[in-house]
Design a protein that fits this description.
The complex is a heterodimer.
Chain A lengths: L3 H6 L2 H4 L5 H25 L33 H21 L4 H17 L7 H15 L6 H7 L6 H13 L10 H13 L19 H6 L2 H14 L1 H4 L2 H4 L2 H12 L1 H11 L28 H5 L6 H15 L1 H18 L6 H6 L1 H18 L7 H14 L59
Chain B lengths: L28 H4 L30 H11 L1 E9 L3 E8 L2 E11 L11 H12 L8 E6 L5 E6 L6 H6 L8 H20 L2 E2 L8 E3 L5 E3 L6 E2 L19 H4 L8 H16 L9 H11 L29 H8 L3 H11 L10 H5 L23 H10 L27
Antiparallel strand pairs in B: 1-2, 2-3, 3-5, 4-5, 6-9, 7-8
Helix pairs in contact in B: 5-7, 7-10, 9-10
Family (chain A): Belongs to the cyclin family. Cyclin C subfamily.
Keywords (chain A): Cyclin
Pfam families (chain A): Cyclin_C_2 (PF16899)
Chain lengths: 459, 419
Amino acid sequence: MATEDARYRQTSQYQLWSFSPTQLAAMRENTNAAARTRIADRLASLPAASSNTSAPTSSVNTPDPEGAATPALPEFLTAPEEAQLMNFNTSELLRAGDHAEMPDEIKATAAAFFRRFYVTNSIMTYPPQQMLIVALFFACKAEGSFISITEFGKQFGKDNPEEILAGEFLLCQGLRFAIDVKHPFRALRGAMMELSTLPDIEARQVPSPLPREYSLTLLFQQRDRLAAAEHRAREILRFSALMTDAYFHYTPSQIMLAALSLADRGLAERLITQTFHYVAPPPLSDNSGVDTPATSGPDALSNNTKKAAAPRSHNNNNNNSGQDKTQMIGSQIRDRVLGTIETCRDLLSKELPERREHWTNKAVIKAQIAPLRKKLTKCHDPDRWNLVELQRVRREQAAKKAGGGGGSDDGEPDDRTLDGDAAVFGEALPVPPKRRKVGAGATGGGAGQGKGDPFGGVL
Amino acid sequence: MAVSPLVAPTSDAAQPSQFARPTSSPFKRQASAVPSSNGNGTPRYPPHARPPAPDAAAVALDPIEQLNEDEKRKYVKGKKLGEGTYANVYLGHVRHDPATLVAIKKIKVQQQYLDGMAPDAVRELKYLRELCHPNIISLLSVFSSKDQNLNLVLEYLPLGDLEMLIRDVDRVRYGAGDIKAWMGMLARAVWFCHDNHVLHRDIKPNNLLIAADGDVKLADFGLARSFADPGRRMTANVITRWYRPPELLFGARHYGGAVDVWSVGMVFAELIIRAPFLAGNTEVEQIALICKQIGTPTEDCWPGVSQLREYTVPADVVPVWGKEAYMGRFGAVGPDGVDLLVRTVALDPKKRITAREMLEHRWWRTDPKPTRKEDLPRKSAGGEEKMGADLKRRNGTVDSDSNNRGAKVARKLDFGQAK
């Protein structure tokens, strides 16, 4: 059976929505550039009067010194400005989810949807304030909670739910129809359960440096280190992990460990060393009888270290299993994991839960967000900003030319070499064979591929 | 377990192809970058992103729309295989390889469901997109058509479904080895779902489609859901009545993979006797049949059962039948086969065999050997229409039905088309 890692690599979250920071930045630049070009073209072709730069009626008849046919183009948002607005709107989304008392999973799924959508769609193209509500609505469905649109709309004071529905399909398309999001919440619970079984966890809080303003008074009083750590880590997962690009760059477990590490570094490291404990035996020479491991003794016979040093007739087998172990739970992996957790931790620490206040701070909004919004009202896409209208037009178009399809073959581009940090997500995937061998390969691996394997193999 | 996927992504570089899946191919471009629409329909790929020349963006397609357009163009839609209220099903093929057939399931915008994309479409999309197994129908691609309908491109399964084979008593003969082969494939599919924390909740013979090479494929994930967190309630109104386990008939709101295992047991029994084993016309009748044929659920054999919301059983208690009682009717699969059957229909879901344990059962290893899939009996005609009919159906009962429990009819079981 497949390891959880192998399973994770099969998810759409990994296959479609995991990127290196460089990749992600390039995609966002690209999206921004494409939107600018299109909106510029569109605005240029619109007659001045109907352009969305507000034209007071009184000035319609006055001569335009610049010439009415070529209205000046607005200033567009840059990619970093879009990112800023996206972060702000993600925090708005989380607030809206809190307001409607949605479960953590739904809010988290909605946040992931929202940020994924705006990887390939510009904030200048589709209105983020509406799309965040759409993301919340669709996240409810994706998490199996099917509530009526009227009911849902009421929670946000929207009497006309049409706007939400109009954006649903758009969102779904922007998500590339991959609507399963893997979260770190259950992983955290599991980690805490695992930690609680370890005998040597100190019961008292030994806090790693925490922000001074964060009060753990109550929890300190309980002197319950695990409970405090879980509480804090969960807060981080509920906010920091969603406000950053963590879901794009890291697996749920990595995010969970990074959050735990921020809450209580000792616990996270304990868990990691507990998992990656394997010490490879020294390579065997021909007369290997002498290097008996120090742990020898009757009960060490079942010990892997001992096995690896067993008589030569078994060497091949045992060496292989030793290598496998080293590869999976050896110290090299441990160090790499620690490194990954550390970078994820750095990322999460940019948006610690205390930053919730930052994003609702009036002064911050006035200084940082309002100017961008103002810019946005001038540079947004005139054709797509109104979702209801857009949907109506599209439906009309579809009705006009029912059928359709066809067209020429599109060339499959093959310049899929990966540069820079893109390589962490593996080489470009080759066109997979028509039949996949999940039973024998991914899922059957490890447990044995023979006929005797009830989980795979040929029946 | 919770910390298992720790390995840094870097370590994947050596062996990603092993895990590549066909489902990924239509989407995988995304992994590299997003194309810019540069006017000629050919997406351009960074890493070194160049903004398109200002005059080149005459085509007003978003990058994502362009991708969708490309996706759509990969397939050619052919004749209609079936038309239903929920979906239309078309035969199609891959544009550059006309020999590769696909089924395109176009989900209709549903008039009666006012809340946007319908639950069954959402569920089907969510789970089929993630589950990738030889015995689960593969979702090759998804695209939207101009009228904003979802189009699911599924692998083409031309040989009908298990129900068709079961019913065609005159022309289709099969034996214990064949049943073992089909059951093996079904058990693997269910195990894979459960191992991925997905409940199918509508297992029955006409959701088990047959591929050209004889593989059985579990289809129709319109009622599927993820395992609920402990304490969270689920609807009891799932699974077509004849295949529905007693705990759901009694209104249990907390349940697990055992519900699917019961359905597997019902399919197993049906394969042997070539008729539905417990075919109740109402829920009450269904419960009565279970009591009569398997035994009455009581506190003795199923501690806690009387606490279930809708627990009612006929007054005359029938003791739970032992293995021997099944031998007469189901003996064709041998004592080991009967042993497996009895374990799948344990009344108490806690005592019911799990999908994993099913696969470890000794029956698979005793004679007769399961038939090789290329030698399995098949029907030569009618499969194409059958796939059309199977896919166009509205998926099983939906949550919203639960408020009219009295009139609740799980779903019409139409045998008319399956002669």
